[in-house]
Design a protein that fits this description.
This protein is mainly beta. Helices cover about 10% and strands about 40% of the residues. It folds into two domains: about 1-95, Immunoglobulin-like (Sandwich), CATH 2.60.40; about 100-270, Glucose Permease (Domain IIA), CATH 2.70.70.
């Protein structure tokens, strides 16, 4: 039998004091919700959002699920399926709406907006590799949070922006852009394993770091890649340098965070940073 447990979602959870190994919460499309599951004295549960497994960690002597919410999520009630000790129950939580601004960008290389047939063949092949890196699951008991910022610089593009390239609407921005000179060293935000690297049509030189339980960081448009797939890294290790490869208008780092194969707001996982002159505003 499947039991249904009703919860206040973000409203309830925001009143609870969580340890530092959890991200900030934002119960919105593109955000993250932390959901209390059970006492840590009980067997560790497994939780699924849709068909995707989500991270479950111990915090304050409780098992909690950390759920990444896609930008496409509908406002209102959402469902988490939880399995524990041979039983299944559902936890319901609410998602509030958020309006993301639209950003108009001019790209000189028109093929980066309207790829030709040969480009599309390459993009299709690359898509499979990217999906494999982002969907990889590594069992861990905890997540190495909060992350440390990989570079210092001006925020030139925030997450969730509805992007229009050369007057043509495209997918929303799945990460955040930090402008910095070409050659600036990029440091790993936390310990992990390099799941893959590659040079991609849109993303340019890219590194994927697997931090466990479906939490993956991605670093795009790099000039040089300084790590290899399968390499274990520590927080602060240099993984490469800032560049302007792929679809860009200037040198910068595209920083992405994927949780349960959902690209979410990166700032929820990092120490609060001080504002820099020229930062893009909300």
């Amino acid at each position: 039998m499947i039991k249904i447990i009703f919860m206040m979602g973000f409203v309830l959870l925001s009143t609870m004091s969580w340890a530092a190994n959890l991200p900030q919460q934002a119960a919105i499309p593109g955000g993250v919700v932390v959901i209390d599951l059970a006492s840590a004295e009980q067997e560790k549960p497994m939780a699924y959002y849709g068909k995707k497994r989500v991270a479950v960690v111990e915090s304050e002597q409780r098992w909690v699920a950390i759920v990444g919410i896609p930008l496409s999520a509908k406002v209102g009630s959402q469902r988490l399926n939880v399995q524990q000790a041979g039983k299944t129950h559902r936890v319901l939580f609410d998602i509030k709406g958020k309006a993301y601004p639209t950003q108009h960008i001019t790209i000189k290389d028109k093929r980066k907006v309207n790829p030709n047939k040969l480009d599309m063949t390459r993009i299709t092949q690359e898509s499979a590799d990217i999906k494999a890196a982002l969907r990889h699951w590594t069992d861990k008991t905890a997540l190495p949070l909060p992350f440390a910022w990989p570079i210092e610089g001006r925020v030139s593009g925030l997450y969730g922006r509805r992007r229009v390239f050369n007057g043509q609407p495209r997918r929303p921005h799945s990460g955040m852009d930090i402008a910095a000179p070409t050659g600036t060293e990029i440091q790993a935000p936390a310990e992990g394993v390099v799941r893959d690297t590659g040079n991609y049509f849109f993303n340019g030189n890219t590194v994927f770091i697997d931090h466990g339980q479906g939490l993956v960081t991605m670093f795009c448009h790099m000039d040089e890649i300084g790590v290899q797939p399968g390499q274990k890294i520590k927080r602060g290790d240099v993984i490469g340098t800032v560049g302007m490869t792929g679809r860009v208008t200037g040198p910068h780092l595209h920083l992405g965070v994927s949780l349960n194969d959902v690209r979410v707001e990166p700032r929820l996982f990092f120490h609060e940073r001080e504002a820099v002159a020229g930062d893009e505003k909300e």
